[in-house]
Protein 1
Amino acid sequence: MKKYVMLLIFLVTMFAPLMYGSAEMNIDVDYGFEGKGKQDTPIAVTFTIQNDERTFDGELVTTYANNYLLQRGEVIPLQLAPNEVVRKKVYLNYLPYEIIDNSTGKFVYLYDDSIEKGDESKDYRVTHNKPELTSYDAFMIGVFGDKQLASALQQLRAIQQSRVVDISEYEITSLESVQQLEDLALFNMIFLTQELDTLTEVQQKAILGWIQNGGQLVIDGDVSSTALEPYKALTASSATKTINAEQLQQFTGQERFNKVLTVHDVQPIQGAHSFKIDETVLAARKQIGSGALIQTAFSLTDATVSQNDNAAYLMAKLLDFDVNFNTSTPESDLSSNVVPVNALFASFEFSLWKIVVVFGLYIFLLGPVLYFFLKRKDKREYAWWIIPAFALVVSVALFLVGAKDRIVQPQIQQMAVVKISDNASEQYFAQSLLSNRGGDYQFSLTNDMKVASYGGQSFGLRDFQNGRWGYVKQQQDHKTLTLKNVPYWDVESFIGSGAIDIGKLDVQLVNENGMVTGTVRNDLTIDLKEVQIWTGLQFINIGDIKQGESKHVNEKLVSSLLVPNTLPVDQTYYDRPTPETIDEVRKGRLLGLANTLVMDDQSPVIIGYSNTADIGAQFAGKAKMQSTVLVVQPFTASVNFSDDVTINGDLMLMKYSTDLYGGVKDQLISGQDSYYLDPADYKVTYQLPQSIMVHNFSWESLRYELYGGAISSQIYNVKTNQYESLPSEYSTDNVDDYIENDMIQFKWHVSDAVYSDNVKLPMIELKGAMKQ
């Protein structure tokens, strides 16, 4: 009997794999932050890989669409022991439609050995876990570490009736998975109830990047000795004060506050906007890039806040829900506007007279010269093969002379913008390759560089095994981009971004009574051409500045003040390039990209061009290189005015929000003059320019005018906490009643009349003087 049992065990062991199939490696793909994401927003992709019973040494390959024109391929090396489980992560700029539609699109592949040497593994299974996606315009708030605070803030959904507001609570440990800013792209705002220094340096830098990209962080602790220390909004203090219930009721307009609120006796940092109750600082807000750090002087877990539903009304006073949607991104600008121009290579060029001379000589040689030569040699019967042979040799020679540049080596064209900032400078570039042979082309990247291949049509680079595509692979000390299966004489493009260090311009300018004076010194590692000050719609020419050189500036300003730049319409994306205009069109496209990069800085900028800057990915072989690089650096200037100052809406940052899809859809001309609008109710804010906010101005009058009957308007009175209806023309000397934290708020009602015409936005004008 024992022999039969042993035989049975042996047979089961031998034939079970044949009965049930070989073991499989399981790859679970999760999208977003704990399974949540937002439409048309960057998203993290996490691969959980569970190995089978064998040892695996190979590569995981991904090929995701990165927007409707781009593809991002990643190669992740894997060395797995039997039954080992690992997690890997990549990032997308949006979620491919096949995943959203729960289709069977294949984006993940497994290769034995390597993608270059191995074959696709047969024993693996991929499961895509479809995420919960919210609308692109939903305002997502994440509360980390305190359930009671998350519950108290739910009332914000009722306060912000014109927008979908989602408040979700998470454990602090949820932040352990955060590696890059894209991990947090789901959130518009985060409440952090734990000291920032308890997070790792990687997590802190990711949060900082998320803020610079538009996020708002609300925190009650000191941010000294963290990545946010250079941007802190409040001083640290252990001394405390109290704000009584009556003061809270008056500040919020809500009567159900019945406890005192303990606050630290702090002061706002210069450049931060403070919120006060009877001269006691409640909180301060510091702009960081396109986002903000909001530090409260009170504890977010204080019972007066976390256990009171009306605390949402207190927090609403400190928060900014006016977020512009449908704004351009550097990646969309690069793929939609820069690449189509960068990929235009010069065609073969022949002058007409040279062509005539060549053909004349050709006919002369094949005619009388050849005839008399053969006649003299009495070999005229050889003409039947000499003539076609001679024609073939001349044709090949002409071709080789005309196409020598394209045959000898490939050509690469590059357009790039380098934004120079106080803390870190970034490069944004597009590169196009004109091949001289078929096959694979490789580029070297720095470790922090991100690139995506250009498809030229929606999802045009999906079939990577049989078609053309690109993938990024980590090497020992750098990364490489490989463009696969490039045909002969074909143009392939990709875009990228990453950190760069080329130095900084030393800008010492003064804005005094309508003039800008001072010096600009080139402390960069490159020479600059066509250096200009870009303020509003005005470009002030400084000239070429070589390394180490300085140029003096003494120019009159159109708007009296140095103000944030505005993109002129004739510099945007609608010019069709010709051989004569291609250089100017390229500069115009780069100017549009630069405008996208600096619009949140709300500062004037210095710009200049270079054709010698070492930017972007480095080609692994030899190639003929042509480069156009625009350097842009925001700056601030000291302001000294004895004359009156007038500020209009063109010089302010306008934000709007509405409960309808659309809103400000298209701007027809420069400035804030003529728009298409959808019929809706809008909340509109006008923020004064940075050059005004950092100085002490006294405002003497406010004028406001409506055009036509499409828009009716109300203005917010900060003294009464009420909106007041406005006539078609309005002016007041009581400016302090309507301006708070350098901001004026309105409500617009846009009627159905907009369907028959475009809208001219209301005129707003402030007059005042600098306090002496």
Note: The longest strand covers residues 70-80.
Protein 2
Amino acid sequence: MGLIMPTERCSIDKTITGKAERMARDGYDGVHIYKHVGREGLQLRVQKNTAAWVVRYKDYTATIGYLFPERNERPIGGHKEALDIASDVKSVLIDQPERREEYILLRHRRVEDGKGGHRRLTHAEALSALRPNSNTWSLRECVEQMISDREKKDADEPLRPASVLEIRTAFKRPCMQRLMDKPASLVTRGEVETARDEVRKTVGASSAKKLVAWVRSVFGYMAKNHSGQSGITGQDPWWELLHAPYKLKERTRKPAISDIVKSLILAEEYLDKPLPGRTMDRPSVGAGVLSGLWWIVLTCQRSDAAMKLKTYNLVDDLKRGDGWKIASWEAEVMKAGQVQMLPIPPRAAAIVDSIRAKGKNAGAKQWAFPSDRDPDVNASRSGVYRILYRLAGRDALIQPKPDGHEPKLKRDGTPRKVLERTGRRDLLAESDVAWWSLHDVRRTLQEVLDNAGISGGASAVLAHEMKSDVNLTVTMTELERDEFMRQRVAKITNAAYGAAQYPKLKAEAMEIWTNALLDEYDCQKAAATEAIAA
């Protein structure tokens, strides 16, 4: 059953728009809908600090513009203008509902009026702009087609999984969403540059450069291989002129081992309580992602690959024994495209296992670090990263709501009161810990091993090659799995001791590195216990 919202049927006029604007300006607590009785489908919805013009027809809903705030991408300041556009949008919902968003964007496009000013496109002009591209692919379809083509085994320009992830991340940026369902042939250079600048501002120069690179790649690929379906002919290759004029600063952060350990201990505190200022009275850190954070710090593997470790690729080291384990990653999950084998010292294996065992989906068959939400999905690097992000108070105080979000209501139809966060605290700074990211730990590893006199150890720990053709399915029977694991442990142990994997060097490096972390951890925990006792 759908949610009930306070609804007022009326003839929307200047009085109603004035009332709606005041409600939005004051931050209306809930959702109030004004339904226009003279033009079926037009609504003026007030929710918190927005007053949006909405058109509904059957199962389709389209936000055609905003009365408030005054400065927005789709301004419709009065009821007369809204009524005119609503009628046109409704005709599009009847004939071409899948193209409603593209049509609305066109109606808000400004062109010169011949009198020194500007005006919006008319209904006829917007339809004319739609028609030549009615059967061509959207930008989203172009991205997916390129990925699909280049993931095939016989592709002449194959994509590594890491590159596919990078592409999806680039095109999932919030500022790109208004372009994704638009015909790719209608996307302009200016629109991409605006998105690029927004990514530079909100994420960073490196991400902005990656967005530009992948936009150029997608459009170039379409022009070369799918010009008919995509509508991208290459006659005006504007994407080749795209540039990201940002100089990347060399990353030099090297968190001290003491700061890394302080952060881990701080995260442990919130396994059973919420972070300060949170509205929900539940733990803010899950054991599953915390074990992932420990794993990344101890192994110094790239975070995405580290979290994609399969259960059957973390095995006992039969040759070294005494609690040692070996972790193995297939080539397709490693950035360098090479299989990686890594010995895990007993102390490191033990602390990770102790935290993993507390996870909601501990013991999942496929992933060594399963998501707390779904055992069939691995914990993501972003989930692990958000531990640090939230400890530093970098997450948004008010989380943005997705389009179409409607608040929960009481039985009487009135909105439930939404609890507001009381604030954010930078708990890392309060503990005198400078901000650090998962990738920064790799530089600390290099420094520690250099100081220990085994400078080649870091390179050995971070990547080397071995051939592998494993393709395990989690649908095996228990007996089949037991037999597989028996053979798998022996195979990984033997492979890990091959010369190409530098087993002695890796083991020595890993023992030095993990002991440095765990010795510091024991020291800080002991100091904390003494402080409490005192």
Note: The two ends are 59 Å apart (CA to CA).
Protein 3
Amino acid sequence: MKQRIRNFCRTIRFKMLIILLAFLMVYVVTVSYFLYDTLQSTQSKILSPYQDMLDLYVEQLETSLEDIDSWMRNFSGDFDVNMMAIQDEKTDRYTLTKYQVRYDIHRNRPGYSTLDAVYVYDKRNESLMMIPDDCDHFEPLVYDFWNEGGWESEGWTVIGEEGKYALFRQYIVNNSVYIMVFVDLNKISEEIREIALGNHMDWNICTGEKVLCGTEQFSASKFIFSRSHTLEKSFRNIDMTFHFLVNIRELWRKNIYSVLFLTVSLLVLFVVGWTLAFYTIRRRLLMPLDLLIKGMQNFDGDEKPEKLVPSGRIEGEMAFAIDTFNDMVSQIWNDRILIYEEKLENQKLVIQNLHSQIDPHFFSNTLNLIYNLIAINRNDVAKKALILLSSYYRFMCNLDRKLISLKKEIDFICNYLEIMKLRFPEKLDIQLSFDETLGKLKIPPMLLQPLVENSIKYGFVNRSQLFHLTLSARTEDGAAVLSVEDSGKGFPEEFRGTFDQNHTFEVPDNPESDNHVGLRNIYQRLLMYYGEDASLKIDWNGEWSRVEIKIRDWEKYAL
């Protein structure tokens, strides 16, 4: 009897029985999980239109506030407003300018429907001009706000007390003249109330922990038994949040048939999928699959794997798959050799392309600079420029190496920057931070120079202002970090982020019109030489543009 039991345990039937029991356990757990997940997903879909409605209203209101802010910023720099700020308030000219400011506000204010009032306040004579004339109810809010130290406030602020809240924004013309704008929160709350009541929802508007207005039924006790769900939307630049309270039970009643259909469909698909999987296991495919997996694992090595030879009887389809795999491995191995040879040829083409990128305008402009320096008898400076130009092109003409040291690249860039500083004296602020330990790092030639050149070419647009450029090479957690930072106009949104093997540049629909081909070339060369150890990060914080190259485990790429 014991022997028969042992023999049975070695049979396929016993193994299939164990698989069946395991399948039933997994089935129960998985169905329970998917049922729960389905209910959660369905609830999310039901609530989605209400959330979209709230998001759309807040986004429209934010857009209106941004339009008002843009208008008032421009208006604060208006000629009449500035004249009002510096004129003697006792003269007729001051009065005339004040009425001109009032007329300009009257003329433009109707175009901003959200805006309720504009105040112009002259601190010198405590003159307060209100537009329109019947908006004096905001005046106590302003004085209370100022008494609490609000003179230096920036951005939109919620001020007031219960029943008299408003969005307030002030613009400082100078130390005496202020412009203030108001948006009545009661008008906004009325619009929110109409939206909420039209969809049978409770609502409120709050800032921080304080509730400004809303329905009395809006209470945290609604959430104890998950009978209701809260939807909220906060403003980006204002400490204010809108809330809707949705009755979940009522929504489920309205969508019960959709929920049942989705649940039944999920169960049917789940059962069918597991049945097909169970049938495949019974086809005795485990051994051939294991053979294929081992063959794939061996194929990851640098040596050509041996041909797969299955032992024992296998199904015809798996025999065909193994034979196909053997043919595919042989073909891929041959293709790898061809691709490697093509990669070497591409590296030569990259170097040739760098030679062709020598800017003739840079050469001619530098020669003109040397000629002008000689013409005004600044021979020492002309000699220096000539030596720098000679070193620059000597480096360019010797770009036949696959890799060079970072020190040579930095020296080459310094020659280029010295020439540019001679061309634009006292207009370029160049900062160099170079960790000497990175001098032996091997990099492709002309890796950083295009970044520096493009910074000056495209970032140094306003020649009347000082242009700042920082070139940095440092170590960070075992990685070499090379960065170029400037005060230029920045990069478009689609070219910001960190790019590596997992996140690549999007190829434009029309490559001929691509204005960032230089960045793409640098990115491709980083992947070519360093693979997964390299990444390219492009960022812009509104004031500074930054391109950062990171090479992890840099010491293995040292000379």
Note: The longest strand covers residues 467-476.
